[in-house]
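Morning!

This is the sequence you dropped in the shared folder:
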Amino acid sequence: MNNKWMENDRAIGFELKMLSNMIKRKIAAIKASEHAEQLTGMHGWIIGYLYDRRDQKDVFQRDIEADFTIRRSTATGILQLMEKNGMIYREPVSYDARLKKLVLTPKAIASHEATMKAIHKMEANIKNGLTQEEIEQFFIILDKIKKNVE
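The structure's back. Tokens below.
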């Protein structure tokens, strides 16, 4: 196979994957330095989901199943582990004795807020030295690439 194209042109897909890996490692390092709780990706997504809805409505396991498109058994396992790790607890609701809403613990809230702080810090680092015009042009190009990949 001729690798000449790699010598002259940088592969966009490869560069994006490398950049994604760099960002993930940097966020993990920022979180570790701030003593944020180490969570699996799915735990983080669920905590963020519950965090965003904590003052709006009760969230139940069936909501997690539907919105994350996961099976009941998968959701059960994830939520049981999150309970065991002190990230959530289940609380009965007054209007239906069969239902228990999912509630974040203070530990989970602190972890989520540390994660968001790390993400915002990384975003600021990424944009450092770029003009608003460069950022806008980047998103125009990125949107075109995403459309091409669809």
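Headline: The two ends are 27 Å apart (CA to CA).

More detail when I'm at my desk.
O.
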